[in-house]
Fold each of these.
Amino acid sequence: MAEALKPKLQIPLVITLTILGFFVFVPMISAFEYSIRTPLEGGYGWTHYLWAIKEEDFLHYIIRSAWLAFLTVLITLLILVPTITWLHLSQSPLRVFIDGISLLPLVIPVVAFAVGAQISLPEFVQSTVLELPFLYFILALPYAYRSLDIGLSAIPLKTLTEAARSAGANPFRTINSVIVPAIRGSVMATVAITFALSLGEYTLTVLLHWDTFPTWVTYVAQDNILGAIAISMMSLIIPFLILTGLTLALPERSNQGRK
Amino acid sequence: MTHLVIEEGAPTRGRTFLTFPIKSFLPALPLLLVIGYFFLFPITKLIYVSFLSNENTLTLGNFVTAFKDPYKTGFINSIKIGLFSAAIAAVPGAVAAYFIETRGSSKLRRTIAVMNGVLANTGGIPLAFMFFAAIGMQGQITKILKALGWDIYAGQFSLGTFTGILIVYLYFQLPLMIIIFSPAIVALRREWVEAAYNLGASQFNYWRTIGIPLLFPSFVASFLLLFASGFSAYATANALTVGNLPLTPLQIGGLLDGNVSASQLNLGKALSSVMILISALAIIPYLIIQRRTSRWQKR
């Protein structure tokens, strides 16, 4: 029995990761191999990547998707952090209601949401691409809300706010320089999920007839399939690298996850 | 006299009376407005419109059509793909989550969490490309298997069929399972294992009487979420099929685009409403179980 308490062998973990890695990386590497083929010369090269980068629309749509994602993150943090902080502090009866309603977007299939948005939002909203960050905000809401909610539950929020207030900080300053740093793990997780979701969102975007990077890839695929595979590869690898960099750069809070 | 007393008491009472209702919802107003306008309003309108005929009178006609072919087959296929993809991904995902969370180092866990976040969100054309490159007609794995004497294209198989889509869906369903099941594993306290062993339990006993009963509700909840995810996926199915496999999300997309015309203008809305209902039947129990299990999962 005592051996159960010893540090366990890593063999099951290695087996698990091998199987998972195989399933995840084989399709990825296969597609990568395709994307560096040069059918004309018969060897390998970066032709399709260079083609993609030189494409005029490539940069245009990357920038567009990036700033839409950035706006979504901004809206998410600006609305959610103060609201959830307030809900935690005030013990408002609204908290139960908002807790519930923030999970509701999980219930609605994105296709149905797209139909609903199309038939109900007025012309002046649907004629601007700025509707997308708000709709992406809704799609990311269940994850963003829960992540921030858990983060705020884990810190002594009342003590911190009172301390900040007695040190002369206004509510804005309290949130900005006391609460956000205290829950930076949750904030980063929220940024990551919201950013990734907005960058990759396809269904809602295409059904509402907007063009972003993911819908552009579909369009390009009709003309230059290998080029489109190259673009797809980049659209997978770039967010992955950015997010991994972000997560690993942040030191893990020592009191999170263990006690 | 009485009049005077009331006046004296007025300032404090008046202030609490005035500030209470404002304070009780004003800070939540931006969130409530955005949710109301961009979410509750569209969904309410969608459900309302699904009961309207072409002449804007109330009718159930849209729903009658929605439950007839080809839409009936669409629902059956979508439900089947949700169930099958969830069933296949659930157990391996749960086991993987267990080993990663209990045996992995902090760096490894965080890297895998990010990877899963990205993978669970892959879909559409990029995902379709990866599988065309691996097990498509000219795919790498297809060629290797053929060299080994197994031609996977000898039968009916293609990526656009039910089986093909099912395999591709696992690519985002497995990471999703790991993401949503991990918190339950993390919440299993080491003290419980130690206590069980101290009382003389074997590993089998521990799992039979403590581990599995504790994890089972979270497992069911995860399964339900996976079902909803597979049931309502659009982008990937759209990239893989060419209209050969009826799936409800694709049928709705077709009606919305105007690529498919129906005599009933609001048929797409009725299909969407039925989708919401089916999805709600899975997600609401998921949320209830989540809420209950999070009580003991909180430390």
Note: DSSP finds 13 helices and two strands in chain A.
Amino acid sequence: MFETFCISRELHDGIVGHARRGAPHEVCGMIGGANSTAAGIYPTKNPDAGELTYSIDPREAFSVIRRMRDAELDFIAVYHSHPATEAYPSPTDRAKAGDSDLIYVIVSLRQPEKPEVRAFKMSEGRVHELKVVVE
Amino acid sequence: MIEVQINGAKEKVEPGTTVSGVLAAKAVRPEMVAVEINGELVPKGKYATLALQAGDAMEFLHYMAGG
């Protein structure tokens, strides 16, 4: 049985729009909410500025978490784009996923007219997919 | 015991508790996280020696990166 990740159409489209604006580079950001329901997206810079990797500067991440807390949101997920590959964790994603409680959202632009958003939890290299509910 | 905030929640710790001590108590691998105290990033080399003071606000989060 799938766990779910719930996100509004507006926030879903916000993530896709961020990915499209940043293509062909990978973009990234953080998602605030409660439990597994998104309530706000916080695009962040990608210091890697590359087509194959992303990272979030800890200083910016701490700043975003303070903004989430001010908005009474929890930090529940991180997102990034795969401009040309499927919305599934790459070996690098799996190797660097350190927080087993965090939801990792990936948006793929492999088919530009049909973007795909999927969500996962990862722990010690294992991948567990969540059902994305857009409402 | 002294009162501090850890990731936004009030907690009590023994005087002299270091950043490493907090992370160990929470089963967090220090090499996987960034740490901030009172808004300042803490260099990894200080985790083992930097002790929390009453009223300190410590935040830690896992590095976020991938490809």
Note: Residues 28 and 80 of chain A are 4 Å apart (CA to CA).
